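Dear Dr. V.,

Thank you for agreeing to look over these. As mentioned in my earlier message, I'm a first-year student in the group and I'm still getting used to reading structure tokens, so any feedback on how I've presented them would be very welcome. I ran two proteins. I've put each sequence directly above its structure. The first is here:
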Amino acid sequence: MSNVDLSASAVAGSSRVVPKGQIHKMVPAAGSEVPRGSVITIYNNSTGPTVATPALTGLTEAQASSRLQQAGVPLGTVGNQSSKTAKTGTVISQSVPATEPVARGTKVNVVLASGPPLVVVPDVLNLPYKHAQNELNAQGFEVRITRSPGGGMEPSTIIKVNPSVGTPVPGGSLIVLSVEESSSAERAGARRARRDAACDRRGAAGRAAPPAQFAKPKT
């Protein structure tokens, strides 16, 4: 520009259409009339053509990959993270925010929802089933009770948990509790014990009653 008594000032810039290394803007614009000795600011594209990053939240991996390819940027790494709200297998975050300009070819990483957070099944073995049920309900589990024949444990206590104790499961999962059930002999023995106790109470009441008094006949 020295031959026209103008000087230039180069500034790094970014353009979505002009190749990297080329001028994409001049201030004042080409064709403008300026005084001799003026400084012309030249904006050099230092990044190459850029594109707006598409929004990917809520898309499946395949849908996100397709949308990125259409925009001219490839899908990068795919991670997984638990989520209580997002649908399993959908994008919950992306490494480049939506609408942010990036150079073509820039990889965009995504994180997919892997489902609700896992919770370890607590140890409720040998607890009274009501106690065990309340504890599991308090932690958000669903509970179903099944009865199992007597196996030597205290009746109405938990003898089996499915899934087993210590297993990581999604929050709110169904836990099946097997409860010790009294054997027929034990139930018969309990009935006899109650009957004998009732007889003992009636006998004790009879022995404690004062002897009857009869009036002497008048002569």
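The second protein is here, in the same arrangement:
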Amino acid sequence: MNLLVNVVLFQIGWFACVLGAAHGRAGLGSAIALTIVVLHCLRAPHSLPEAALVLAAAAMGSLWDSILVALGWFDYGSPFAPYWIVALWMVFATTLNVSLRWLKSRYLLGALFGAVGGPIAYYAGEKLGAAHAANAARGAETRRIRCCQKG
């Protein structure tokens, strides 16, 4: 897939998921993202490994965002990562072997891009209304109170 096409389709998928979630149309945004993912996998030179990468990203992204919710850092209105954010992780995975392929052997640079780009993406998603960045201290206090109430 052409590098520019990959970048543009990722942006379309990202905005579809985030704006869809922000405006009560998470299903539509996710459907757009998943259509991009399916088309990407069908056009990939090695479709099955690419699909496996996308599914692995979905699992890891779901776990990561569920951890952020459990820690009280984000509030998606659910105790787990919502389906639209899993679709977002899947559309992100379509960039790994195309537009981000140049980072494959540049581990430190890849980590730097993730350390900077990840928080920027979460911040942008929050500002567009898709999520609520909860107070980490408040989240810790809430967990401490729940723990004490159980015992």
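From my reading of the second output: Residues 139-151 have pLDDT under 50 and may be disordered. The radius of gyration is 17 Å. Does that match how you would interpret it?

Kind regards,
E.
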